[in-house]
Structure prediction request, 282 residues.
Amino acid sequence: MRYGAGFPTGNWHDFAALRDFAQALDEAGIDYVSLATHVVSFPPGSIPDENPFHYAGPFRDPFTLFAYLAGVTRRIRFRTAIAILPLYNTFLVAKQAADLSLLSGGRFELGVSISWNRMEYEAMGQDHAARGKRLEEQVTVLKKLWSEPFITFSGRWHRFENAGLNQLPPPIPVLIGTGNEDRLLRRVARLGDGWLPLWDPVDHLPKLRRYLQEAGRDPNGFPVSGRIWAGRGGPKDWVAEAKRLQAAGVTDLGIGAGFDKAGKEALSLVLEARRAIAEEIG
Prediction:
């Protein structure tokens, strides 16, 4: 089991707090730290049916923040969970991710998805309706750009000849965040280097394994993330939930402190949960 933690939402505005959190996780042996991302923020109350956490921010740019943190940490990996890929220019993402992977010594994982926020797509001048299909083409292009110095590609959104980055980065896993619908699981099986489930993955992992086999891929050890909330319950509850997820095939366990926790309180909860779980399941 790999252990991770997300940056507490209460610290998003404070770069020093984000640095201290990442360094403490690094020193404690946590495997990865993840960052939720958006490009555009909207005033609280703009989307009445949504928690402002989902759209108000302030959100940090992952490539900028992770490049800084790579220089002040030693071993922890950095993961976007998630970057809304269809909002971005694909070549720009390829370049920024490649440089970040090179700078960090291969410690970057690109988690991507499509998001529900139509307002953000409109602000960025992108097509909300086509976001799923565009993401699929983007992932294909990204992987080619990271594996060959120059490529030629002709698709719906990308057409270019003999162009590229001319420098190959260490491997960059592309983890795809989705719900549990069959068509989305098939997308993960075809294109992803791992699955970031939006909800409880346990009942849907058998289908994902089947789709991986149909795509000619080995389902054994395919990275799948799960999540527990250390702000709820106590050690017995955390261990029981971790065992349930591990038994189903979850490989990566993200530990969250809760939306109302920040700073040292959040860090203490994450590390306490990790110690309790690791003592039981490794």
Notes: Residues 1-30+223-282 form one domain. The radius of gyration is 19 Å. Residues 36 and 81 are 5 Å apart (CA to CA). The first strand starts at residue 2 and ends at 6.
